[in-house]
Amino acid sequence: VLAVDAAHVTTLNNYAALLIERARSASEGDAMGLLGRAKALLYKAQALAPGFPAYNLACVAGIQLARFGPTGAARDKLVSECKFSLLEAWRAGGIPSANDLAQDEDLAAVRDEL
């Protein structure tokens, strides 16, 4: 689909979700690359349909925090990205219930800061 329509938002989002899933079981180096690719696809989708991929962007930031344990400014940047993306998802009506948010392991690293 992307070969025919590089701006197909649903496909961009779904492909990113696939990369996120692959990153869960990948080595640290591979996971970093997969999450970076996923984030790039999600930002492209976000530019085309603001809010639609925002929840997945929040999840990527949460996974990066948990998996790579950045500190200082790098950590603050990812926490801010996560919060901003969750707000964008809420504005677009694409945020799960409070119960689902509380149980989403992708957000565990930032849950106390939300």
Structure description:
The chain contains 5 helices and no strands. The chain has helices spanning 9-24, 28-48, 54-68, 72-91, 98-103.
Defining traits:
mainly alpha; globular
Topology:
Blueprint: H1 9-24, H2 28-48, H3 54-68, H4 72-91, H5 98-103
Helix pairs in contact: 1-2, 2-3, 3-4
Shape: globular
Helix count, DSSP H or I runs of 4 or more residues? 5
The main sheet comes to: none
Strand content: under 5%
Contiguous uncertain segments of 5+ residues: none
Summary of the model, kept short:
By secondary structure, the protein is mainly α. The chain contains 5 helices and no strands.
